[in-house]
Design brief:
alpha/beta, FGGY_N, seven-stranded mixed sheet, D-xylulokinase activity, FGGY_C_2, 16 helices, kinase, 22 strands, Nucleotidyltransferase, domain 5
């Protein structure tokens, strides 16, 4: 029996590091998950165990190459953003992999923004809200300011996906999906690096930009697989939708964060949108994607705990609650009006509600979902404005929540609302980005499963 041609994808999250093998039909034929104990940087702040990650890449590939049932034709990476690896002339990392949650010095932040027109002007130009270390470009600025001697030794500052690719190829590249993700590096108005990158002599530390379907030969003798340059995971997750659907859509990617992504809204960010936690990404073809963010997945988990404790129920109960329109009618005295406001709340009003006013936990749960969806509608409308979108896709945790999906359909009666299901969207996107380099078949049209939610089936809220 001949070996199955596959692509190996390393999908590196903050918590879980996964390896997938996909066959030419984009079916997972092998997977492995690892977790590493964090280490600390020189300041004692928790950070990724960079050496464990590096060794894991090589060990996992060695294991796969020993499997005679598979023939690895290519390797690619999707990984979390806002993380830089500083490599020296010998290709070795010079510093820990600093955590993007590490507090950013206020004095240094003020110095930077004062030099480049203030935070509001800078954020508009770079489509990057002021996020401290989450603006990875400011991490590089910090290294230059606080450790100038170390900065001079840096050959390249690579975003994490591109560093992982570098380990296998020895080629250092930059990728637009990593550059264009709230880094503060890219001027979205001029479609080039922002002026500060040149003024601060940072540009020489950034590797050449290549297209997202670029592949390089593996570094190791006797191997003939191709290696992609890696992608930022949020942008990678959008790729299957861009390839499979050509009519304009918005993708609401739900998890801890609920991010509304509109690849069909090319308008520049406004000051008001930035205040409401909007930003722009660069997708794999280099085009801007307007996005809005909510922390709703985190809020949902906290409020479900609150409901369970109040009504003395097990939290597991709420993993699969069926939508009940009669409960919606009972607990609401009138329709919710989805109004635009100057500043959208960061969390719903449910936290302020008195749970003793509900007859039972199911009433409270439905009210929680009404409040979350009301906020989601406001957030999503920010990126829908002035765009031709008629479809909304929801993936991630809330796509499996029938209460959420029915309420969302009711909130957008003019839209077609679908729950999307796909195994490992970021990994599939990384594989699709270099499809022609490893796959002899046409891209299948059934990678994404859809379930339609009709407004007629939902309560009008």
């Amino acid at each position: 029996m001949s070996a199955i041609p596959v692509i190996a994808i390393f999908d590196v999250g903050k918590t879980n590091k996964k390896l997938f093998l996909f066959n030419e039909n984009y079916e997972i034929v092998f997977e492995r998950t690892a977790r590493f104990i964090e280490t600390v940087d020189e300041d004692g702040f928790p950070c990724e165990n960079q050496e464990s990650l590096r060794l894991s890449i090589f060990d996992s590939l060695s294991e796969v190459f020993r499997m005679k049932e598979f023939r690895v034709k290519a390797v690619n990476f999707s990984a979390y953003g806002a993380s830089l690896v500083y490599i020296g002339e010998n290709g070795r990392a010079l510093t820990p992999l600093y955590n993007y949650l590490k507090p950013y010095p206020e004095e240094l932040s003020n110095k930077f923004y004062n030099a480049y027109g203030g935070p509001d002007k800078f954020s508009l130009e770079t489509a990057s809200p002021v996020l401290g270390s989450l603006n990875s470009g400011l991490q590089l600025y910090r290294l230059k300011q606080e450790k100038p001697e170390l900065f001079t030794k840096v050959k390249y500052a690579l975003h994490l996906p591109q560093y992982l690719s570098f380990l296998l190829t020895g080629y250092a590249y930059s990728d637009l999906t990593s550059i264009g993700c709230h880094t503060g590096l890219w001027d979205f108005q001029k479609n080039r690096y922002h002026e500060w990158v040149q003024h601060e002599h940072v540009s020489v530390k950034l590797a050449p930009i290549v297209v997202s379907d670029k592949v390089s030969p593996a570094l190791f003798p006797g191997t003939n697989y191709k290696v992609g340059t890696g992608l930022h995971d949020s942008s990678a997750a959008l790729i299957p939708y861009l390839i499979n659907f050509h009519e304009p859509f918005v993708l609401i990617s739900t998890g801890t964060w609920c991010i509304s992504l509109n690849p069909f809204n090319n308008s520049a960010l406004t000051a008001g949108e930035l205040k409401n936690d909007c930003l722009s990404y660069l997708q794999f073809q280099g085009k801007p994607v307007k996005a809005s963010r909510l922390f709703s997945g985190f809020e949902y988990e906290q409020m479900v705990k609150r409901i369970a404790e109040h009504f003395n129920k097990d939290e597991i109960k709420y993993r699969n609650i069926n939508f009940n329109p009669e409960i919606i009618k009972h607990i609401k005295t009138g329709p919710v009006v989805f109004q635009n406001s100057d500043v959208i709340r960061k969390e719903s009003v449910f936290k302020l509600r008195d749970l003793s006013g509900f007859k039972n936990d199911l009433e409270a749960y439905h009210q929680l979902m009404i409040d979350i969806v009301q906020l989601q509608a406001l957030s999503t409308n920010l990126v829908l404005k002035n765009s031709p979108v008629k479809r909304i896709f929801v993936d991630g945790g809330f796509s499996k929540n029938s209460v959420y999906m029915n309420l969302l359909a009711a909130a957008f009666p003019q839209m077609e609302v679908f729950a999307a299901s796909m195994a490992q969207a970021s990994a599939v996107g990384a594989a699709l980005s270099i499809h022609r380099e490893w796959n002899s078949k046409a891209i299948p049209n059934d990678i994404i499963g859809l379930k339609y939610y009709s407004t007629n089936q939902s309560a009008v809220i």
